[in-house]
Amino acid sequence: xxxxxxxxxxxxxxxxxxxxxxxxxxxxxxxxxxxxxxxxxxxxxxxxxxxxxxxxxxxxxxxxxxxxxxxxxxxxxxxxxxxxxxxxxxxxxxxxxxxxxxxxxxxxxxxxxxxxxxxxxxxxxxxxxxxxxxxxxxxxxxxxxxxxxxxxxxxxxxxxxxxxxxxxxxxxxxxxxxxxxxxxxxxxxxxxxxxxxxxxxxxxxxxxxxxxxxxxxxxxxxxxxxxxxxxxxxxxxxxxxxxxxxxxxxxxxxxxxxxxxxxxxxxxxxxxxxxxxxxxxxxxxxxxxxxxxxxxxxxxxxxxxxxxxxxxxxxxxxxxxxxxxxxxxxxxxxxxxxxxxxxxxxxxxxxxxxxxxxxxxxxxxxxxxxxxxxxxxxxxxxxxxxxxxxxxxxxxxxxxxxxxxxxxxxxxxxxxxxxxxxxxxxxxxxxxxxxxxxxxxxxxxxxxxxxxxxxxxxxxxxxxxxxxxxxxxxxxxxxxxxxxxxxxxxxxxxxxxxxxxxxxxxxxxxxxxxxxxxxxxxxxxxxxxxxxxxxxxxxxxxxxxxxxxxxxxxxxxxxxxxxxxxxxxxxxxxx
Length: 575
What we know:
- It is built from 25 helices and twelve strands.
- By secondary structure, the protein is of the alpha/beta class.
- Strand 10, helix 23 and strand 11 (519-523) form a beta-alpha-beta unit.
- The longest helix is centred in the middle third of the chain and has 21 residues, at 342-362.
């Protein structure tokens, strides 16, 4: 079955990765260059926080509770009646309403909730006599308490976004969400690192130094509103009046200008955002009037992660592409629609970023392999990325979080020979987009190009069947290897050392025991205190059953082709 045949809610990470690489390669390349601005909505948090239908019911129940069941002419019923009017009930449906019974008992309850959800901003704008305009938002929904810090843990989407930010490929993120789950995920993966993300809510925030990524919260922030209500309460946008006034309110001018600039300078990736609010539609119209996008364009200027493109998303395409939209509607829709929801899509983007960075690093090795080997490097890394994608498809949330932790740990071990100081934290492969990695002169000397080349060889060995990855996972073993491989019934515990210090620390910290024949250390530079080999022995063999050490720098100098390098690696590995 082709990848695009799967529904957005059932497609796996591996299938999503195949879909993107097969149908959207230029989109993937642009993501890895940090070109796309991510526009996020409540869909990325709905499994952790109350979705719109839930808070619609909360408001309806509150409004019903204010009325006197014995007096239907009581003015306190007026707000509830106004709310029900938003559902545009038929005559037959109205006959099913009984004000003396709780709305939960009404046969038309679900129909009312569904219809009013599409008009949630009108619901929140209903006036309650004697109460402030944001009464329903602040006092009934209790947004700061319901969406603020500590209410829920981040979900898979937030962790993947945090990784993409740390890797430097998601420099611009725009969100309509009030919650602080993205910020929490960043803090968990990079504790105390204030350089990863800078958050913008009010105009004055744009004067702060920017982080690696910017997070623009254009509908406000519940975390900051509860911390400083005087400054941030009024910036919680949810009512129709606020949304209508947003494009013209001077208080939002700085935010509006920044978002308009993103709409003109960066293609848009929209995830979990219906774009139904008029201020979002208006903003893309304003961006088009500054600098429009003309079809054909590759990659697409707008990409939506949905089961099907909705009315408001189609309108953004019409507005954004202007005159060039007409006559190309079908082609534009196909190029703009990725049928995968947030979890599989963001997981696939994260894994692909790791893959592309490893490929780039492998090709930065200074000697030994010519440019014609690029396809073999790519194939080997692709095999590993496919294995990574497969590993997270059974229990996507828990296994993806574990994968992020494992990758971060592997990078820390390879760089320093120690576990991360904070368990579960993440260390990026690099802080810049893929295309900028070659501009960093320190990368060539970092030892990671050699590690990446070794990983590509392992990937190709897996594809050829000469090696397999062990299925067991030692979660509680702090000394567990980066990889455990199986070959010919022999299990190997594989570590990488990007430098001499890491090699020494791996031994000192108990990860590698020289007397353990299952231990394999892949070195980027000559291993320290290496044993003198007899001239007649094959590369890496001493005749003793001891830990195996593979010197990638020596192999790269000795080999003139990728095939020769792979064979030399296999001999060193004793496959």
